[in-house]
Write a structure and sequence with these properties.
Layout: H1 11-19, E1 24-30, E2 33-39, H2 41-45, H3 53-63, H4 70-85, E3 90-98, E4 105-116, E5 122-130, H5 132-137
Antiparallel strand pairs: 1-2, 1-5, 3-4, 4-5
């Protein structure tokens, strides 16, 4: 099934976001579902080695919480659903997730905001940060 992208990012902005080393994704809530509009190079690198941008987008669209610790899944899914329905607000969660195809869980801090685009559409930009080493150092 092909879902038409409603969130129309200017092409130059899309390219810059996709090339970013910062792990981020742009999502849109449409038709009762969260759809991934784009992912950055930084986010692609957090997934299983050899994954393509398209692989990561497909995973986020079909099984977003696959590698999240089972105890954290309901919490972040609930927070994400609440955030998707808000006009403003901020998404901020800390949870455990397996990264880069490894067996150990890492601690992720995700922060997101809604953005209104020139065409009137709304999207959410979520930035992901692996904070495991910072937490272990303290």
């Amino acid at each position: 099934m092909v879902v038409q992208e409603i969130c129309c990012l200017p092409e130059a902005l899309r390219r810059e976001l996709e090339k970013s080393e910062i792990p981020l994704a742009v999502y849109q809530f449409t038709g009762g579902c969260v759809r991934t509009v784009l992912v950055s190079d930084g986010l692609v690198r957090l997934h299983v080695p050899g994954s393509s941008r398209e692989d990561v987008i497909r995973l986020l669209d079909t099984d977003m919480y696959r590698d999240v610790h089972p105890e954290d899944t309901v919490y972040i899914a609930t927070r994400a659903a609440e955030f998707a329905k808000l006009e403003g607000g901020r998404y901020e969660v800390v949870y455990r997730q397996k990264l880069r195809g490894e067996d150990a869980y890492r601690t992720i801090h995700a922060v997101g905001y809604h953005r209104h685009l020139e065409d009137g559409s709304k999207c959410a930009v979520v930035v992901y940060d692996d904070v495991t080493d910072a937490l272990d150092a303290n």
